[in-house]
Amino acid sequence: MEWTVQELADRAGVSGRTLRHYHQIGLLTPDRIGANGYRYYGPTAVARLQRILLLREAGLSLAAISEALASGANPDDEINALEGHLAHLEHEQEALGLRIASVEHTLAMRREGRQPRMDMMLEGFNDRYEAEVTEQWGRDVFEQSNRWWHAKNLTQQRQFQADAEQLLTQWGELHQSGVSPSSDQAQQHAAVHAAWFAQIPGTPGHAGDIDKTRAMLTGMANPYTTNPDFHPAFGGAAAADFAAQALRHYAQHL
């Protein structure tokens, strides 16, 4: 079975121009080109397009997609990559199911003239760090912390977030005061920071595992320096790097 450019474009939800562009840059080659100059796509090309669309949806550039597909030419590599895509889609499906249930709950309560539950209205919408936590510490850690978070009422969630903001603000104030990351003041605040992490179920600090706590604190400190998204919360890149240095020093001496 083969499809023309337009037939494949219609089924994939992309334009014929996009498919022709993919061909021109060597990203997606037709299975054959007919005597009439038409491009024809069979199962091999369609399977490759599936991966291209998955990677594009994940935010990769066309150059990065080309590199990823080139490095995964081995059939085993392709299977591993597809398993990874499937796991990601299943997680997205789970999150979407939670959001659908949340909206259905709100709609049902409104129709009955009743007040929706506040925690249900936010179910599935505030798991912003699922991918990061799962990648760094495993699915079990995310599940435990997620259940703990959703067990809190809205007031408790807001208080937790306020405490977190104050924790980071204090790092900026310490940096402005001119003390060193290894000073008593900075190390005392590092202990407070570590205790804040430890209250979250699933973390090694919560379980009392010193070695894994040391690794976690170091792992959490690194993005404070390298990820610009964290910098404003600390009051700037220098303050964020100060906090990272202090946490690493604290971890080394646990």
UniProtKB/TrEMBL annotation:
Superkingdom of origin: Bacteria
Domain HTH merR-type: 1-71
Stored InterPro entries: DNA-bd_dom_put_sf, MerR-type_HTH_dom, MerR_fam, TipA-like_antibiotic-bd, TipAS_dom
Pfam families: MerR_1 (PF13411), TipAS (PF07739)
Keyword Plastid applies: no
Keywords: Activator, DNA-binding, Transcription, Transcription regulation
CDD domains listed in its UniProt record: HTH_TipAL-Mta
Family matches, as PANTHER family: HTH-TYPE TRANSCRIPTIONAL ACTIVATOR MTA, REDOX-CYCLING DRUG-SENSING TRANSCRIPTIONAL ACTIVATOR SOXR
Record protein name field: MerR family transcriptional regulator
UniProt source species: Kocuria salsicia
Lineage: Bacteria, Bacillati, Actinomycetota, Actinomycetes, Micrococcales
